[in-house]
Design a protein that fits this description.
Elements: E1 12-25, E2 28-40, E3 45-53, H1 56-69, E4 72-73, E5 85-89, E6 92-98, E7 105-106, H2 111-118, E8 123-127, H3 133-146, H4 150-157, H5 161-164, H6 166-198
């Protein structure tokens, strides 16, 4: 996959989670922070990064830089994902499913901001394993990395999209028939109205 240039995109940043950490030394403990940050342009591009520093602003800045380096493109079908997929990362498991128009983003925790920033508007997502925000975020990104559209898979297999997913042909035919019947009904009603007007 070709690397994206984040400077060419209109990116929005969102802090998913901040966590206070301590490191024990000989002379005592030093306090620090880590920040999980997601960046995206609401148009199929998203990245997640983790920044660590003594202060929260520095941790967020480092997280944004890391997220921009990990940017990826997500294939969208209208406003949802192309197919169901699940992925593990450590003890976390994430399941993402496509949803019908008007469903919205049904997801929680670290998954929701990632999907929203990616531009997915209708999706069902579930965290099945550990609720650890960092592992859940990496598992969600692994899910999105697995996403493929039908055209890519058909090209890799060397067969047409219609052979691979025959139900798409039936769905297209049904939509075309509906459109034709609606247009014929409109024409007939217009003809009846003109005859009535003449009478």
């Amino acid at each position: 996959m070709a690397k994206l240039n984040p400077d060419t995109l209109n990116l929005t940043e969102q802090v998913v989670r901040t966590n206070k950490v301590q490191k024990t030394h000989k002379g005592g403990r030093t306090m620090g922070w880590n920040a999980l940050v997601a960046v995206g342009d609401y148009s199929g591009h998203v990245g997640v990064g983790l920044g660590k520093a003594r202060a929260i602003p520095d941790a967020i800045r480092k997280g944004v830089e890391a997220a921009k380096k990990n940017m990826m493109t997500i294939p969208l079908v209208e406003n949802t994902v192309p197919h169901e997929v699940n992925a593990h990362w450590g003890a976390s498991e994430v399941l993402i499913r496509p949803a019908s128009p008007g469903t919205g983003v049904v997801a929680g925790g670290a998954i929701r901001p990632i999907l929203e920033l990616a531009g997915v508007k209708d999706v069902l997502a579930k965290s099945l394993g550990s609720r650890n925000a960092i592992n859940t975020a990496w598992a969600a990104m692994a899910c999105l990395r697995k996403m493929k559209i039908a055209a890519e898979v058909s090209e890799a297999r060397g067969i047409s999209v219609e052979e691979m997913v025959p139900w798409m042909l039936k769905a297209k035919a049904a939509v075309t028939e509906e459109a034709e019947t609606e247009s014929s009904d409109v024409v007939e009603s217009a003809g009846e109205a003109s005859v009535e007007n003449k009478a």
